[in-house]
Design a protein that fits this description.
Elements lengths: L1 H25 L6 H8 L2 E8 L21 H6 L4 H4 L1 E10 L6 H14 L5 E7 L5 H11 L6 E4 L12 H12 L10 E4 L2 E4 L4 E2 L8 E2 L7 E4 L2 E4 L24 E5 L6 H10 L2 E6 L7 H12 L5 E6 L15 E3 L5 H12 L5 H10 L1
Parallel strand pairs: 1-2, 1-3, 3-4, 4-5, 11-12, 12-13, 13-14
Antiparallel strand pairs: 5-6, 6-9, 7-8, 9-10
Helix pairs in contact: 6-10, 8-9
The structure holds D-aspartic acid.
């Protein structure tokens, strides 16, 4: 008897579930993919600039390729599922190895983002870029774009034709981050090898391996896992809409050079920079340090009324360079590496030539 009852119960359950299934089928069918895309997907603009991510070479190989060969539409088409994340609009700003990128290119890029950002239908931006100078472009944009929408810089260490090319996943995760509402208001970010990094902090740390970036003393802002962003940190430094740097009337930047200090560094190297540039970053040892020979020459020039601005940065990636009370002729570069200190000084010189105001900028941005 018990067995019969159990059998009846099972049958009732099975028919019940089947009925449920039928009910489900009776619900309105989901909108066709195209319709759903138009209605619900955010729009992300991908601005292509070249680099290894757009590089091609011998099939399978990771070296001996040409950077900046594929256009941005080919990059988009090459990533399965990218069009399920967002409505994508590709624009080719330039297509070159990132060692050829210029300040003029930066200004074109920043102006374009600033213009597009006014369009309410655009959720965020991705910049595809070579890795060599990616951190520089990212920091420049961090100081000059006037939007709180996510701006994500991305690249690859292996060309598109390599075995296990890293570009497609990096691009996928960048688009995913650019459309993520929690990514708003965090400044320009770099996505690389599952990590999310702040533009001001990130630096390239290897010539070859695919986990090529990190945030130095500050680590990562978070992780990407497939298309999901997990944030843990936020940079305290003002960026984008909270900086005084405005590119709208600029075509180029004031000339700022980097003088690399080392044992036996000759005075004529420094002199060259002091003579020909509006600003000089000394890539110094330790606390942005340099020889007495170099120090004294900077003092003589500045005390003698030379308007050249000299900033001391550190050759190593971590720690802070502090002011020298006995040497106010130079400005401490804070914890910016020399290539990033160069960007801040170039932009500062578009606003002021005043040494003390520029000192304040280095303490702030
Ligand atoms: N080194 C290449 C890259 O990783 C070239 C470049 O920076 O454009 O992208």
């Amino acid at each position: 008897m018990k067995k019969i009852l159990a059998l009846l119960l099972c049958l009732a359950l099975v028919f019940g579930l089947a009925a449920c299934g039928e009910k489900k089928e009776a619900e309105p069918a989901p909108a066709p993919a195209e319709e759903q895309k138009e209605d619900t997907l955010p729009t992300v603009v991908i601005l292509g600039t070249g680099g290894t991510i757009a590089g091609t070479g011998e099939a399978g190989k990771t070296t001996g390729y040409s950077a900046g060969e594929l256009d941005v539409q080919s990059l988009i088409d090459g990533v399965p599922g990218l069009d399920k994340l967002a409505t994508l609009k590709g624009e080719q700003v330039l297509n070159t190895a990132s060692d050829n990128v210029t300040a003029k290119d930066w200004i074109v890029l920043a102006k374009r983002i600033n213009e597009l950002a006014k369009d309410d239908s655009i959720a965020g931006f991705v910049i595809t870029h070579g890795t060599d100078t990616l951190e520089e472009t990212a920091y420049f944009l961090d100081l000059t774009v006037k939007t709180d929408k996510p701006v994500i810089c991305v690249g690859a260490m292996r060309p598109a034709t390599a075995t296990s090319a890293d570009g497609p996943m990096n691009l996928y995760q960048s688009v995913a981050l650019a459309r993520t509402p929690e990514a708003k208001g965090r400044g320009v970010m770099v996505v690389f090898s599952d990590g999310i990094y702040a533009a001001r902090q990130v630096t390239k740390v290897t010539t070859y391996r695919t986990d090529a970036f990190n945030g130095r003393d500050f680590g990562a802002l978070g992780y990407m896992v497939d298309d999901k962003a997990y944030f843990y940190n936020k940079s305290e430094k003002p960026n984008t809409v909270d900086t005084p740097f405005d590119v709208s009337e600029l075509e180029d930047l004031p000339k700022v050079g980097i003088a690399y200090f080392h044992i036996d560094a000759e005075l004529d190297v420094l002199e060259h920079y002091l003579d020909s540039y509006e600003g000089v970053i000394v890539a110094g040892a330790g606390n942005g340090s340099m020889s007495t020979l170099w120090h004294n020459r900077i003092k003589e020039r500045v005390d003698g009324g030379d308007g050249v601005i000299v900033v001391r940065a550190g050759r190593m990636d971590n720690g802070i360079v502090t002011e020298y009370a006995t040497n106010p002729q130079t400005i401490a570069g804070n914890n910016l590496n020399p290539q990033k200190a160069r960007i801040l000084l170039s932009l500062a010189l578009t606003v002021t030539k005043d040494r003390e105001q520029i000192r304040e900028y280095f303490a702030t941005y």
